[in-house]
Structure to design on (175 residues):
C-alpha cells in the first residue's frame, strides 16, 4: 500500500511539474528582447546587437509566427513561420517563407536544429531558463578541417571541423 501511495505521489508531482513548465510552443508565446553577443574565433571581444523574437499563434491551427529581429526591424526582420511536422516525435519546421524550410526538434527541454548554408553548418538551440529564453548559435565549417584515426574499429576515422563563431542571447519577455 505504501508503494502504491508513493507511486501516486510521484505521478502527481510529475504532472504538476509538467503543467507548470507549460507546453511548447504555447508557453513561449510573446515578445522576447535582449542582446545577442557574437563571438568570432580568434577574437576576444564579441560583436553585440539587439535581438528580438516574437512568437504568436498564426492563422492555421498549430502554426505560430517565429519572427526574429536583429538590430532594428527595418534593418534585419525575419518573419518566419513555425509549423508542426510530427509533434509526438518533437519534430517541427521553421518555414522562412522563401522556399527554405528548416527542421527543428524538441529534445531535453531544448528546441534545436542544424542546417548547412554556403559552406557553414549552423547549429541552433533555444531553451527556457528562469523565465528567460536562452538562444545559442554555433557556426561550423561544413568541410572537415582534418581527419585523424586509423580507420579501424579501435581507432575509427574522425573528422574535425573549424569553429567559426558562437552566438548567445538571453531574451526577456517584453510587455
Amino acid at each position: 500500500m505504501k508503494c502504491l501511495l508513493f507511486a501516486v505521489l510521484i505521478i502527481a508531482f510529475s504532472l504538476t511539474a509538467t503543467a507548470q513548465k507549460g507546453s511548447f510552443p504555447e508557453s513561449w508565446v510573446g515578445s522576447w528582447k535582449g542582446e545577442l553577443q557574437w563571438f568570432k574565433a580568434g577574437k576576444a571581444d564579441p560583436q553585440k546587437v539587439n535581438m528580438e523574437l516574437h512568437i504568436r499563434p498564426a492563422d492555421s491551427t498549430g502554426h505560430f509566427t517565429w519572427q526574429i529581429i536583429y538590430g532594428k526591424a527595418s534593418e534585419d526582420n525575419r518573419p518566419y513561420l513555425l509549423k508542426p511536422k510530427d509533434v509526438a516525435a518533437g519534430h517541427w519546421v521553421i518555414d522562412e517563407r522563401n522556399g527554405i524550410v528548416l527542421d527543428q526538434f524538441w529534445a531535453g527541454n531544448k528546441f534545436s536544429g542544424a542546417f548547412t548554408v554556403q559552406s557553414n553548418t549552423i547549429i541552433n538551440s533555444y531553451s527556457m531558463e528562469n523565465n528567460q529564453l536562452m538562444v545559442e548559435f554555433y557556426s561550423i565549417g561544413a568541410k572537415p578541417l582534418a581527419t585523424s584515426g586509423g580507420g579501424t574499429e579501435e581507432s575509427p576515422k574522425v573528422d574535425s571541423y573549424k569553429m567559426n563563431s558562437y552566438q548567445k542571447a538571453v531574451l526577456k519577455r517584453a510587455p
Remarks:
- The longest helix spans residues 2-21.
